Amino acid sequence: MWNTSQEGKNLQSLSDADRWMPGSYPMTCHSPDSTETIENHRRSDTESRALDNDQSRIAAAMRDLKKTGWYWGSLTANEAKEILQDTAEGTFLVRDSSQRDYLFTISAKTSVGPTNLRIEYRDGKFKLDSVLFIKPKLKQFDSVVHLIEHYVFLSKTSKGSESIRPPNGTVQLLLTKPIYASTPSLQHLCRISINKTTKRIQELPLPNRLKDYITDYTYHV
């Protein structure tokens, strides 16, 4: 027979022993499995945030591209060649890349005919396909339009002859004139001209609605 009074004392003693005293802290122990689980969660969170950032940047780049008028979407290489065949050297367009590892491709007319140059996306930045170039560090950009704008500027300056030249050939790739998928609006052409002239859009004597339209596309091409 159990001694109920002694049992009560033992339970009371156990309860007192388990009660945390002021200033005391619980001791936690993690097994290797639990530590690995925590690290996996952290890694998963980091990868998830990186994926979200990439998706946001690519989406923003796509929005800018669609405003240009010279982004042709899912155009094939042969279709781009036909479009550029009878154009002047330096005429170009941007289209979706047909290769899975790349998002976009520049198709441009060179002195020997149309050619293609892929744009790669890595670590949140866009740059020309580094596989084709000897240069160890190609300039990187936050958007595809900014990349195009940079090389258009180089092509129109004294350094244009050195702007884009693959090591396996002597043909230079100039980007001087975009070819539009459809006729751009007069408003769009006007805001490009305004952006070329000034960066102080907010100081112009224009309605706020027009200022918003101009600053929605701040590129020069």
What does this structure look like?
This protein has 221 residues and is of the alpha+beta class. The chain folds into two domains: 46-182, 2-Layer Sandwich (SHC Adaptor Protein); 185-221, Elongin C, Chain C, domain 1 (Orthogonal Bundle). Helix content is 42%, strand content 13%. It has helices at residues 4-18, 32-68, 77-84, 144-155, 186-197, 208-215; strands spanning 91-96, 104-110, 113-122, 125-128, 177-178. The longest helix is centred in the first third of the chain and has 37 residues, at 32-68.
- Biggest sheet: strands side by side, in what order? 4-3-2-1-5
What portion of residues is helical? 40-55%
What is the total tally of β strands? Answer: 5
The number of distinct helices, counting runs of at least 4 residues, comes to: 6
Largest sheet: 5 strands, mixed
One letter per element, helices H and strands E, the order comes to HHHEEEEHEHH
Low-pLDDT windows of residues: 1-29
Euclidean distance between termini CA atoms: 96 Å
Task: Assign the CATH architecture of the largest domain.
Answer: 2-Layer Sandwich
Helix-and-strand structural type: alpha+beta
Nearest-angstrom radius of gyration? 30 Å
Strand content: 5-15%
Shape verdict: globular
CATH topology of the largest domain: SHC Adaptor Protein
Identify the CATH homologous superfamily of the largest domain: SH2 domain
Mean pLDDT: 80
Q: What's the CATH first level of the largest domain?
A: Alpha Beta
User: How many domain units?
Assistant: 2
